[in-house]
Predict the 3D structure of the following.
Amino acid sequence: MTTPAAIADFLHHLRYEKAASKHTLVAYERDLQDLAHYLHDRLELLPEQAERDDLRDYAMTLHDQLASSSVARRLAAVRALYRWLRRQNRIEADPADGLGNPRQQHKLPRFLGVDEALRLAKHVDAGADPLVEARDRAIVELLYGAGLRVGELCGLDVRGVDIPERLVRVLGKGRKERIVPFGAPAAAALTTWLERRPLLLVRAGVEPTDQPALFLGVRGKRLDPRSVRKLLDARTGAAGGHRTIHPHGLRHSFATHLLDGGADIREVQELLGHARLSTTQRYTHTSLAALQRAYDAAHPRAHTPSQDEP
């Protein structure tokens, strides 16, 4: 079926009025197309014709098929659609009002310990293509050293990095720009990569002036998030890691290690580009969990007393 007009107009609003990212648009379109198929195939309705009970029945079908986190994401898209339709006076009442999310299991973000993160950052693959090796080291250093999202990293241009000042200009969610510092190891890795980057472009047959992207694939095109995930998987294993780490895991590690080192939570919020402090506060929970494990392992009064104790 073709995309219903209500959904197409809402996506247009997100793209051109809200400047939503490509990733956000793809997710909203996928989730709302699922709703449209349900309403069309089962009830022969357009989205603007749906009533509250129709949406509740749809939510119940999601609970039977998907994890609670996926259900919550889809219902968030549904609520956003109907709020917009109501503001546009295309519906008289919002049928998604009160459509609640499933109870979530609050999982702590996965992150590396300091030793693991440093081992990954320092790893050198002596048998790799030297151009690719220089690129990959710079990627790991910047993901961990600046706490970037993988999409932000892939969107970087050469002109967005100031190595002497050790600053990177990032375009984050909602196309909000922020400036993030990075350390000396990341500066050294970026310097090496920028020295070798023109050689990769020449080998790929691409004029350097035609490609502004900082990080490139072997064909001279801008690196994409999927490629970064693959190279990080391979690099983690080669560095002796017993578990793979997602690019976002390095961002988690960045935030957790800053907080463990005494950084103020609001400063970490600025560095991460979080709109809400509550998002950053997840990392304090991670740090507290690490402290609790250390206490339980080391403190003589951490364990339940035996029955022989008075």
About this structure: The first strand starts at residue 161 and ends at 162. The chain has twelve helices and three strands. The beta strands are 161-162, 167-171, 177-181.
